[in-house]
Amino acid sequence: MKLRFVSIIVFAMMGANLAAADDTWRPDITVGPTFSTLGIGADVGVRLNDYIGLRVGGNYLSFDFDVNTTDLNYTADLTLASIGGTLDIYPFKRVLRLSAGFRYNGNSIDFTATPNGSVTIGGTTFAAADAGNVSGELDFNKFAPYLGVGLEGRFFDDKFILGTEAGVLFQGRPRFDLRGDGALAGDPTFEASLRQEEAAVEDDLSFFRYYPVVAIYAMLRF
Question: What is the CATH number of domain 2-17+59-221?
Fold first, then answer.
């Protein structure tokens, strides 16, 4: 059923383009919302000729989730925030779009863990009062290249564009900074355990270095 639904969308996009009465390119500007794994946002684009276009846009979304490691259970606050531009190539003038660009990457995760009893951090066990509240931030490279491929169709006399895109944001290996505010804050043994815990979390979340982007968008053409 899902495959049939996707096929209908693809053929509808192709039909909308092939049925266009005037296939001659003319300069245009597109504006509209995007909904993607990067968050909710908007894009503004300009088509330079039959085969090349430029887009700029930004996205934002924030939500909480839980992260369970071998030592601590964290409450995590994920913030997706990025802005950037892409160069779009249309090898067949319409339908298929190949994109490459970059984004200023503000994606980050804030972690908080409050032990109720003894807690193991980086393989060493500490009393809750000694560890205190354990918190930290995880972030990524601020400059993140992007590659994607999309399908789009034009409707209502070419004034409305509906499309979908899939790609990868190369945001680098995550960097984690962890600290505790208990009685042992600053103690060399405790700090060494925090460094080990940081490495464990970075390893658990290493898949975020290649962030998958799946988007749908609707654009008005001027």
Answer: 2.40.160
